[in-house]
Amino acid sequence: MNRIYLDHAATSPTDPKVVEKMMPYFTETFGNPSSIHSFGRESRKWLDEARGSIANLIGASQNEIVFTSGGTEANNLAIIGAALSRKHKGNHIITTEIEHHAVLHPCERLEEMGFQVTYLKPDQDGKVSAGQVRNALREDTILVTIMYGNNEVGSVQPIKDIGELVKNHTAYFHTDAVQAFGYLPIQVKSENIDLMSVSGHKLNGPKGTGFLYVSQDAKLSPQMLGGEQERKQRAGTENVPGIVGLNEAVRLSVEKREAKSQLYREFKTIMIQSLKEKEVNVQINGDINESLPHVLNLYFPGVQVEALLVNLDLEGIAVSSGSACTAGSLLPSHVLKAMYGEDAPQLRSSVRISFGPEHTKEKIKRASEKLAEVVRRLM
Which of 9, 109, 214, 354 has the fewest CB atoms within 10 Å around its CB? Predict the structure, then answer.
């Protein structure tokens, strides 16, 4: 069976070029970058090169990049670290109802600690507005955290407008760019972003790698204590092979961004047209014209998502749902719930399809035909 993986928003295969770049740093350049001898200095050289390269690509300074184990750690450090370091200035945080759980759960933890959190509700396209942020801002607001692009429906938030608004306030502005980075052009200074989270394994880089952009004007309370690595923001010996791989993945992703984004948008058109040609009743969740290029969330009225996922898997097609299946019970997607309401049929009949570099138009056409067959069978 020729399987087709359409779940790149969950994770992506590591690019062979990235793997090749990493290999020498496991056995040859293996020194601890904090050591002062030649082995350590050699590792430090490549660590600094990666830091500078990534910073340059997002319009930041080298000392504004903090390497982490991925997006979840970066989000936790940004949110909890900012809240704890600024609690003397206030205790109010603004976020949205459709954030990744790596943002929502830290916010919930802060609520348990006495902070107040305002959760902005999106419209039916999965977007919030700068006006909503303006209305929610208070004198004691210390942090605004809004994702760049949604991981389930792909909705892109007006980050530049929000950044322009928040820059005139004392609050820090954080964005979870884990899904958007590498697909959209992001420049942290011109967009007035103070903190930004990125993960390597969404970019065909190695798992367990990521970074947090921390503006030189932003102060965080460290969440991992130990040594003085990463500007004293993140203790622990740096993962040099992983960081070298992350740097290569970031470089390749930015280099190929425009071409792959255009191709993935064509994939969306091919898939929608193919389903309609097969007379499949399908609706798009979110605004296809203002969404991440690689994410497509589809609603199939009357089709149970669990049955759809299982049958597609049997056909060799890997997609995911906005819902989590646990012990046979379907937990509704909090994103779709926020967009449509807790009783909306979209919560029970929607799947997320996400594209990657190994796909071709022919492969997407074949996957669309299989999807149509399965949906029609389940109807």
Answer: 109
Collect all residues with Cβ–Cβ distance below 8 Å to 118 and sequence separation of at least 6.
92, 93, 94, 95, 136
Alpha-helical (H) ranges within the chain are 16-22, 24-27, 38-58, 71-85, 101-112, 130-136, 159-166, 240-255, 257-277, 305-314, 334-340, 361-378
What is the pTM for the complete model shown? Answer: 0.96
- The contacts of residue 161 (CB under 8 Å, 6+ apart) are 129, 130
| Residue boundaries of the structural domains of the chain | 4-12+257-378, 16-255
Residues catalogued as catalytic: 325
Task: Please tell me the total number of residues recorded for the chain in this structure.
Answer: 379
Per DSSP, helices labelled H in 211-256 are 240-255
| CA 188/CA 186 separation, integer angstroms | 6
Q: How far is CA 53 from CA 10, 33, 73, 250, in A?
A: 26, 17, 21, 9
Kindly give the confidence (pLDDT) of every residue in the chain, 379 residues in length, as a single tens digit, with 9 standing for 90 and above: 689 999 999 999 999 999 999 999 999 999 999 999 999 999 999 999 999 999 999 999 999 999 999 999 999 999 999 999 999 999 999 999 999 999 999 999 999 999 999 999 999 999 999 999 999 999 999 999 999 999 999 999 999 999 999 999 999 999 999 999 999 999 999 999 999 999 999 999 999 999 999 999 999 999 999 999 998 899 999 999 999 999 999 999 999 999 999 999 999 999 999 999 999 999 999 999 999 999 999 999 999 999 999 999 999 999 998 644 433 445 789 999 999 999 999 999 999 999 999 999 999 999 999 999 999 999 8
CATH class of domain segment(s) 16-255: alpha beta
- Identify the helix (H) or strand (E) that includes residue 96: strand 92-96
Fold of 4-12+257-378: Aspartate Aminotransferase, domain 1 (3.90.1150)
Query: Cβ atoms within 10 A of the Cβ of 136, count?
Result: 17
Cα separation, 362 vs 364, whole angstroms? 5
